Amino acid sequence: MIAFESVLVLLAVGLPLLYPILALRAGWARVLRYSMPVLPLPALVLALATEPGWQLELPWLLNGGLWAMDELRRLFLLLTAVLWAVAGIYAVGYLGAHYLQRFCVFWGLTLAGNIGLTVAVDAGSFYSFFALMTFAGYGLVVHEGTAEASHAGRVYLVMAVLGEMAILAGLLLASAAADSQMLSDLPPAIAESPRRDLMMALLVAGFGVKAGLPLLHFWLPLAHPVAPTPASAVLSGAMIKAGLLGWLVTLPFGDIALQGWGTLMLGAGAVGSIGAAVLGVCQQRPKAVLAYSSISQMGLMVLMVGAAMADSERAPVLFSVIALYALHHGLAKGSLFLSAGMSLPAGRIRRAAVWLLIALPGLSLAGLPFTSGALAKLAMKEGLAEDKLDFALGGYLSPLMTAGAVATLLLVLRYFWTLSGTLQTGRNPPMLAAGWLMAIGVSLMAFWWMPWEVEGLVKSPLWLPAPYQLWALIWPMLLAVALAGLTLWATRVVRHR
Amino acid sequence: MTLWLMAGLLFTPLAWAVLTLLTDFAWGRVVTWGGIVVQVLVSLGLWLAVSRDGGFYYGLGGWEAPLGIELRVDGLAVTFVLLTAVVASACGFHAGVYIDPDKPWHRYFWPLFWFLWSGLNAVWLGGDLFNLYVGLELISLSAVGLVALGGKAAALRASLRYLLAALLGSLAYLLGVALIYGQFGTLSIAGVVFWLEDHPVPAGSGLALALMVTGLALKTALFPLHRWLPPAHGIAQSPVSALLSALVVKASFYIAARLWLELGEPLGNLAAAQLVGLLGSAAVVWGSWLALRQSALKQVVAYSSVAQIGYLFLLFPLTYSVSESVSQQAQQGITLQVISHALAKAAMFLAAGNLILSTGSNRVDALTGVSRFLPFSLFSFGLAGVSLMSLPPSGGFAAKWLLLQASLGSGQWWWVLVLLTGGLLSAAYVFRIYRASFLENSETDEFYHPSRSLEVIPMVLALMAIGLGMVSEEVLSVMALPFEEEGSP
Amino acid sequence: MIRTLKTLAMVAACVSFSGILALSIWTIAGQPAPVNLPQLLSENMARSGVEHPVTAVLLNFRSYDTLLEIGVLVIAGIAGISMAKTASLEDPELRTSDSLLYGLQRWFVPLMLMLAGYLLWAGAHRPGGAFQAGAVLAATGVLMRLGGVPMDFLRPGLLLRLGLVLGFTVFLLVAVASVIGGDAFLAYPPELTKPLILIIESVLTLSIAMVLLALFVSAPVNDAEDPEEGSS
Amino acid sequence: MTLNAWIPVFALMTSLVAALVIFLLPEKGYRLRTTVNLGAALVKLGLVVVMVWGVFRGVDYGLSFTMVPGVTFVLKADALSMMFAGLSAVLWLLTTIYAVGYLEDSPNRSRFFGFFSLCVASTMGIALAGNLFTFFLFYEMLTLSTYPLVVHRGTEKALRAGRTYLIYTLSGGAVLLLAIAWLHGVAGDLPFREGGHFIDADPEIHRSLILIFILLVAGLGVKAALFPLHGWLPQAMVAPAPVSALLHAVAVVKAGAFGIVRVVYDIYGVEASSALGVLEPLAWLAAFTILYASVRALSQVDLKRRLAFSTISQVSYIILGVSLFGPVAAAGGLVHLLHQGLMKITLFFCAGNYAETLGIHRIDEMDGVGRRMPGTSLAFTIGAFGMIGAPPLAGFITKWVLGSGALAAGMDWVIAVLVLSSLLNAAYFLPILHRLWFREPQASWPEERFWGRLETSAWLFWPPLLTAVMTVMVGVLASLPFSPLSWAELIVLREYSP
Amino acid sequence: MTAPLLYALAGAILCGIGLFGLLWLSHLLRKLVAFNIMGSGVFLVLVGLPQHQGGQDPVPQALVLTGIVVAIAATALAVVLIRRYYHLSGLTSLTGEPASREGAPE
Q: Cystine design at A302: which of A176, A269, B52, B75 (Cβ 3.0–4.6 Å)?
């Protein structure tokens, strides 16, 4: 079945890559619009229908291309494909005629980059797709053409270019050290290289720009609010994960324990998760809140990355957790972003239903039982369990995670609050609604479908968490709700005065 | 066969001169064009003969030197004979179309032209010091006559200046000849050399060489004795200017070079050689500089001649007390420089004539926009300029290359700077012309179109100057041929 | 002041030039010439066909020089007549009304013609020859011209030009004829040497006289249009 | 002589003859001139393809004869020459097409195309030259044939630029001549030979060799626009766009760079150069030029001037590549010869399109052009990204290979230079791209012309797109046989194991 | 010291005088006369030096005859040119100013 997969993967990358050709003729605008959801479908099939482990050699490509699939990539590909698909559906309804073709062109290119980088195994094509995604993403960010968008775009671009260069330098150094163009050869080489720290720094920083590492995150809260809603969704849900993937495939995790780097990453993760939350609750605009939420969530993932770095034994387990968490977060965050572009229906009940649907992914994010969030949080907790980790800062992880959970919900609540102020009443275009519903659906369904058994972290079936786990999930939420209520009350009081 | 060739070279030009004197301009033109064909064939024939069999001495009237006049027919001489045939025939053809047949005095153009040609042949082949003097005078007077033809005040002024300079130069040369004859009792260069080969250098003979070289340098317009040249070459009719710049000045230089190569080693000294070289360098720089500052087109070209002549005098330092191979290189380089400059300068003057014909003015400024109308002549001008700038693949470049090698080989690196600077400066003045012609100016849109034949001739010459570099090995190999037999001194 | 200094410098330069030259001459005079040309010449006189060595050198040994020399003269003539003003021939002002001149002319012209003939004839065995004869002949022409004898052949026309080149042409023809005869150039057949040289000398005389006369006549003079010229 | 000896001559002659024919054609012979032009370009391309195939199989194309005593004129086709020849053949064809459209209805076209062909003939000669002397011959011919192109417009500004150009290039030529003559005096007539001639040179001549090397680089560096000899290039921007394209992408600057490659590899030999200690300073100089020119480019408001500074910067990549002692870096440098050509010609074509179609010359006039001229702007975007070194375009391959090579050679600082240069490239190209695509267009263009269905004349429209496609292809398909990269590796293979 | 040698030495002096005149005088006719003086000097050297030991040598005599003809031709040509030049421009020298002090023709 090699042929099948090869064709599929070429289709998965090639379809969105060639899709911009449709923009050549003005008359094809309609086709352009309606084929947006179709673009990620081959990738989706690829992620769902093929077993990991296949390879496709493309010796003519760049310095010799190799595309392949493993478990990790498959999860990321799944996330990417799903999210882009639902966002695509949503976009069909969302987009006006304003520069539609331009948007579609960049949409296709960004998507191609995003899919490509998940399947690319050689440095050249990986970096190519990464860059394609980055630069094409600029088109999505500045699409609205407002001054604010331009500003955001400029920041995005500057940081992206800096990041790209860091990645380029890092990859160059690493592949020279490994004397190989294959990503899989890089981590051991980095681990042994005398210039390890330089390479690490370059790669961490380079991918960190995309992943919203603290101090490298500035573009995120600027870019997400101004981008068109479906674009924000994929930016925050899928593209941000590309940075994460970059770390996972290039940095030496299993080979050597890097206490220093682990600590650094832990610190960064902590600062990210808490700091972003603090900043996020102060935001006025719902999408900005979500953007900070993304940074905060990424902070948690960075935390895990740091742990994995510090403890090489544990890294394989943590990898799976990170992947799961990324999947979960991507889908949930995507749904939340899409909600920001909705209009509320007129009827009271329907309005309540909509609100409910809006709220569910948010709560899932916060770890509501029976959602993917609950599982992800639990898995994370398991993964970072103190007793299993073998490094100095292990003890701080648990409180940090709790604090993170509180922060998450606070941000979600803040999002609801700000959203309720901005949502208009009206009719939603059918495609928009469909996309949104599918996003939420997928996000919620994921709970039932996810391969939770990995590494035996969480017992299966887990539709009902164990009581202690339930409590562990619930009490931070309660704390957050209480805090939120307190704040609400406090503002009322203040306003009365 | 050789006899006929020699007769064809030495006497038929004189016959053409007589014939053309007896006819009017139009018939003179017919005679000339026929004569040109004959002369070219004869020159080519002699060249082929020499390149096949080697050079020889030829005693005129059956009298050998020192009693009679002996001609030295070697590769170098026949090459210059051929060069003369080429350039002069080009000028002749050009003049036939260029010169206004209605002016009564123009009928005298042809006889003077032929006398000039025969004088040149006499000089190239001459091996007798006094005969060379007469040949030089023949050349000088006919050249002056050509410059003065038409007799405008400015032309007369220039030709007078030219005449006086030429006469003074001839006298200095003759004085040197007198001293040589007094000392050695022979007028044959070969005889003197032969005697010097196995005798010590007699005292007091240096002055003779110095006088001759100085006189010839004056006739060649070596800096600072160059002031007569630009007005004369600038004011003459273009074909005349071409002849003068291409061939006439070369004649006197040729004699000087011959003398130096034969007698320089015994009679000259290092300081003199370096001094001449220095003057040549000054000519290169100063001449180019002045060329850059002229406002009249033909003056530019004329000053360029001053500069280019300067290169020729590098022969003196580069062949004095240096190794055989370096001397060889220098001689070859100078020979190429003479040939390529002759071709290029003739092309340039003829092209300049065309340009003047079409713009109606001699001023450089008047060329504005002409590149749109006369690209062909302008292109010829530019190609000739390439050779003057000594850019490859022109003959000028090959010459410069050899001179560079000679300078570096002899350790006299300072001439390298001169060579390079000269090339750049010549580029400056050539491109100044180009610059003017490229300037787009909508005001001047009316240009007279000269006939195609006028345009083709300079192009052919320029192409030859360019192509010379590619075949310079062949050209030079003819000159290096051994003598068939040693002449009797 | 500066001019004086410059003059002095120039004088010094010229004096030193003379000095060096004289010194050089003196030095050279102290050494014997390695080649004894006169002896060689006298050995070959028999073959030259003329008795006088100078004439032999001029017209036989170094006849090419002479040919070219005549060429130079012709050039000068051509260049001269190219400047000529036809009108000047008829210019009455040219005529001198001096009676002395007129009187002398009647006596002198035949005398001078005779002298010219003698010089020409004598050239074969004594110093003298074509050039001298030609010069005298030209002087005769000048005299006649000044005396007002209209010499129409001096008008720049075919006749004048023919006259100019006559000597030269004959010389040239002889040279070429010698080639046709199978000898080297200017190598006269021994038996014909004497008459040939005589013929050459005669036509040369004529031509030389023509050239000189033409140059005298064609020098533009007395143009009434030019006030400056008239005032001087 | 066999046919093989003559093929290089034919390749040379095609454009030379075309030039002469064109000079003779009347100004109005538009159709005939175009036919001659394109026909010659196609024939030449064919010949080059034949030679490429032959060189790959190891066929020897060469011709030589003695020109000046002691010096031979040598034409020879080796792998390196075919790289340059191929570039010029391909781009000549495209540029000719472009120029036909660009100069429609303008005066002096015979002159223009004549010199244009001469220029290409010189380039071909440079590529095929088999020794320094022959190289110099065509090098100077190039100078001369480009001058009329630079001043083609005949304005004061153009003439001034032309003068600057001449002063620089002719002086450079003089220095080069001196160096060549000197070298000839020291070592005789040296053919270009893989591995060079001075691996075991007599230590006594080392000093001379170093001095000669400096002179050679100085002479060649003028055309290659090495700092501080680059001043002519931005000024030469007044030339018509096809000329700029040719100057920048194919002919002039490349001739300089190519010459340096020849000197380092085939005259001195890379090992000998390295042993003489001349490579590292050259590398530093190239690196400095890269950065300096990029910084200067930032402040240019005229589009073509910005591109010019970009060229200065980019060409130094080639020199940097060859001056790093190592096969991989060498391949990187060499491949940039082609890559930069493709990318830069794309950019210049586009700049010309903007100028010709909309009258746009300055960057601040470019707002929203992407809507009006999407095809051109797309090509421009690709070219710009290529310059930045964004994957998978041509520029990326260069940077990647160059970087790897630098690391292999142990010169880590080069990575910093590469990264910094990319950043600077991004800094001056991305704002343009932003304007192109994301700014609202102004109410009217400075000077708009219409050409029916396409956004501009078809002659102008397709060449940049084609080169853009090639820019993508040479990047994406870098590992195919006969791709520029593979060819460069072939050259390097022959160079390092002669 | 023989007579011919004396002639030669006198010739040297004449050469100097002629040279001075040729270089220094600006009036064209004077220059021409100076040229003739110098020419005479040269001829004297030519004819005197080889015969300084008293022996007859016809060759230099012949040469001088040729030389004289050439000089006369040149002089004649020069006179024609000078007169015409004067006729057209009113100038007697080449310096470009209108007739200078010493340049006024008598």
A: A269
Residue A425: Cβ within 10 Å count: 9
User: Domain E3-99 falls in which CATH fold?
Assistant: Helix Hairpins (1.10.287)
The pLDDT assigned to A93 comes to 81
Comparing CB atoms, the residue among E8, E68, E80 nearest residue C219 is E80
Q: Which of B440, B445, B447, B479 to mutate to test the interface with D (most CBs of D within 10 A)?
A: B440
pLDDT of residue E105: 38
Cα B396 to Cα B402: distance, rounded to the nearest angstrom? 10
DSSP state, A386?
Answer: G
Between C87 and A469, the more confident residue is A469
Instruction: Name the residue of chain B whose CA is nearest to E26's CA.
Output: B161
- Helical (H) or strand (E) element with B72: strand B70-73
What is the DSSP secondary-structure string of B304-321? HHHHHHHHHTTHHHHHSS
* Per-residue pLDDT, A69: 83
Judged against a pLDDT cut of 80, whether residue C48 lies above it is answered with no
C-beta neighbour count of D183 within 10 angstroms: 25
Which residue segment(s) compose the domain that C128 sits in? Answer: 50-221
Q: Is the pLDDT of residue B327 over 70?
A: yes
Tokens representing residue D222 in the block: 């003028």
Query: What residues of chain D lie within 8 A of the CB of A165, using their CB?
Result: 419, 422-423
C-alpha span between B467 and B461 (Å, rounded)? 10
pLDDT band at C113; cut points 50, 70, 90: confident
Residue linked to tokens 């031509």:
C207
Query: Reduced to 3 states, what is the DSSP secondary structure of residue D70?
Result: coil
Domain-embedded: residue C21: no
Are A366 and A405 within 8 A, CB to CB?
yes
pLDDT in the model for residue A450: 62
Inter-residue contact A368 to A332 (CB < 8 Å): no
> Touching A: which chains, 3+ CB pairs < 8 A?
D
C225 pLDDT tier (thresholds 50, 70, 90): very low
Q: Which domain holds residue A418?
A: 2-496
For the ranges B360-374, B413-427, E33-47, E67-81, the lowest mean pLDDT is seen at: B360-374
Nearest to E73 among C18, C19, C72 (CB): C72
Determine, yes or no, domain membership for C176. Answer: yes
Model confidence pLDDT, tens digit, residues E48-100: 888 877 677 888 888 888 898 899 889 988 888 888 888 788 888 877 654 33
C182: tokens are: 């199978």
Nearest to B130 among E50, E63, E77 (CB): E63
The pLDDT value given to residue A392 = 66
Q: Does residue C129 form part of some domain? A: yes
Q: Where are the domains of chain D?
A: 3-496
C139 is a domain residue: yes
Q: Give the number of domains in chain C.
A: 1
Interface test with E, best of C4, C44, C57 (most E CBs within 10 A): C57
pLDDT of A385 above 80: no
Of the listed ranges A465-469, C16-20, C71-75, D325-329, the one predicted with least confidence: A465-469
Nearest-angstrom CA–CA distance, B267 and B253: 18
B59, β-bridge pairs: B70
Distance CA B326, CA B405 (A): 8
Beta carbons of C29 and E52 less than 8 angstroms apart: yes
* CA dist list (Å): B432 to B242, D159, D173: 20, 10, 19
What residue has token string 């498959």? A74
Inter-chain residue contact E46 with B177, CB threshold 8 Å:
yes
Q: How many domains does chain A have?
A: 1
Q: Does the distance separating the beta carbons of C58 and E65 come in below 8 Å?
A: yes
Contact partners, residue C84, CB within 8 Å, separation at least 6:
C156, C214, C217, C218, C220
* Helical axes B297-312 vs B414-438, angle rounded to 10°: 160
Q: Which structure tokens are listed for D7?
A: 């093929």
